[in-house]
Fold this sequence. Notes:
Layout: H1 8-16, H2 21-33, H3 35-55, H4 64-75, H5 83-86, H6 99-105, E1 115-117, E2 121-126, E3 134-140, E4 149-150, E5 155-161, E6 164-166, E7 169-171, E8 176-179, E9 184-185, E10 188-189, E11 195-201, H7 209-225
Antiparallel strand pairs: 1-2, 2-3, 3-11, 4-9, 5-8, 5-11, 6-7, 6-10
Zinc ion (ZN) binds next to helix 3.
Amino acid sequence: MVSFHPDSKFLTDFAAGSLAMSEAVCVAAHLEFCGKCRAHVQQLSDVAAQMMARLEPIADEHDGFESLMQRIDSAEPAAPQESAVRAGRPALAASGIPRVVEKLAGGNLQDLNWVKLGGSLRIAPMDVGCKRRQTAIYDIKAGRPMPEHEHRGEEITVLLKGSFSDADGKYVRGDFVVRHAGERHQPTATLDTDCICLVSLEQPVKPSSLWYRLMEPFVQYRLSGFSH
Ligand SMILES: [Zn+2]
């Protein structure tokens, strides 16, 4: 059961369309798992629409999820548009992965450009048209730990598949986990299955020596592949 949710500031900013794209994608992915937050965003959108209606005689209905999809569509003018996604229905794809993630991945997550970092972790950077933050899919092997690392800025993790634990608790599919600057942690995937996460990083993690060694190919990849 999902037990970690975006706080009300995330949901309010999402409904207002004012989150950075990388954060908005994380909130949208969580919404596909979580009816409670979907209802909250809908409520916020209704309030916003009512306020707008008072200000202007004719106001468009505001829908956080739909406006995000429109932003994604406009950021990728060449991408084929899937009608179900364009309609903004907040529901998981047949694969069990959020539609917003499948769309950004261009279909199957396995087809992304994975970079292997040691024996337990691989990372696929995702270009969501956001220069302020890094977005990526992490795949942690079942039962294996990620290197311990410290954050320089905020990190959002949305669990798409499997589960992981760290010193603070256990996190399952759909959970929206936020870590802040200065926090150290070492997530370990649980034994039963690989753990796949959507991650949005405000700043690169602080390079402890092991982490730096592991991150190096990823950093180089980013520099060459995402220099726009
Ligand atoms: Zn929620």
